[in-house]
Amino acid sequence: MRATEGRSGIIYKDFRSVFGYKIGAVLPGKKKPTPEVWTLDDVEKKRYAGFGKTIVFTDLHAWHSKKIAKTYNQKYLVEDDFKLLNDVLLVPVGPVNHHKDFNIRAHIFLCVVGMIFYRYLAWKCKHLRLSIVRLVDELGGYVLLLCRRRLVGTL
């Protein structure tokens, strides 16, 4: 095996077409060989021309291009919701210790309702320019207390 084949992890695989490299000789007084790295200018220019461009295939022919692009670019909202769902402190959907299926379904339902509430709250507070993560952090110190009047003689 040649020295360059064993060192192929030097450059991230998506950029191997842009960068050239060569593993040089071990210099006197050094323990490791000296790598040489350079950019392939013509390939770099082609890659640079494609930065920031994404092809979106859709069957929504009635939509205008701007609406399609805006909808595609808002996919981060859904991704953020999934990240919040995976946050154990916010919505513990993981292994739930309930003895009845109904309790599990009720727990998941309440988690989803909670996510809808957070999304609604973020929408109502958008003038404050808070991310939903920051909003959750700010609300973390509050405790919700429900009080109701119980009639005498009822359970």
Write up this protein.
The protein has two domains: 3-49, no CATH class; 75-139, no CATH class. It is 43% helix and 10% strand. The protein contains six helices and two strands; from the N terminus they run H-E-E-H-H-H-H-H. It has helices at 3-6, 41-49, 65-73, 75-86, 101-124, 132-139, and strands at residues 19-26, 33-39. The protein has a two-stranded antiparallel ribbon with strand order 1-2. A hairpin with a 6-residue loop joins strand 1 (19-26) and strand 2 (33-39). The model is unreliable at 1-6 (pLDDT under 50). This is Transposase IS4-like domain-containing protein.
Structural key phrases:
155 residues; mainly alpha; 2 domains; two-stranded antiparallel ribbon; disordered N terminus
Overall 3D form: elongated
What's the story with the biggest beta sheet?
Answer: 2 strands, antiparallel
- Count every beta strand, where a strand is a DSSP E run of 2 or more residues: 2
Tell me, rounded to a whole number, the average pLDDT.
Answer: 75
Query: Which consecutive residue ranges, at least 5 long each, have pLDDT under 50?
Result: 1-6
Organism: Candidatus Argoarchaeum ethanivorans
Protein name: Transposase IS4-like domain-containing protein
Keywords: Membrane, Transmembrane, Transmembrane helix
Transmembrane segments: 104-121
